Amino acid sequence: MKIILNFEDKDTFRKLERQAYDGTIDVTKFPPAEYKYFSELRKIYYAFKFEGLSKEEASHRKQLFFRKYSEDISKQERCVAVYAQFQESIRKASENISRIEKSHDVTEVAMLACETLGAMMGEDTFYGRQKKKLEVQYDGT
């Protein structure tokens, strides 16, 4: 049975830190950021317990590694958000391509194409600007 750890749970995180201190933690199946943090933490605690590393230096190193861990997690979350947006853009583009194929209205085709292009480029205002151009052209203003 596979055990899934919730690294965001403070109690779980503390227990894992304690295991790192005791030298009983198994990081082999941890995600990359957690693997890196707890591996380094285990080394710090080993140096503290057996190699004469001072408590202050051990605490300082732990803080540095935790800060790096937090940065790694933030970067990972940003990447996930970017990929999710990219997938949504692909979904929207596929939907619009289908609507373009079914349409017989040139203006609708142009607007759907602009919406798709804006989504694929991550340009939120492109569609609105092009829509205004078409409205001005057809209104004569």
Layout of strands and helices, then pairs:
Blueprint: H1 10-22, H2 32-50, H3 55-102, H4 106-121, H5 126-139
Report on the structure:
With 141 residues, this protein is mostly helical. It contains five helices and no strands. Helix 3 (55-102) packs antiparallel against helix 4 and helix 4 (106-121) runs antiparallel to helix 5. The longest helix has 48 residues, at 55-102. It is elongated, with a radius of gyration of 26 Å.
Keywords:
mainly alpha, 78% helix
Summarize the structure.
With 141 residues, the chain is mainly α. Helix content is 78%, strand content 0%.
Helix content: over 70%
The helix/strand order is HHHHH
The number of distinct helices, counting runs of at least 4 residues, comes to: 5
Strand count, sense and barrel status of the largest sheet are:
none
The share of residues in extended strands comes to: under 5%
Give the low-confidence spans. none
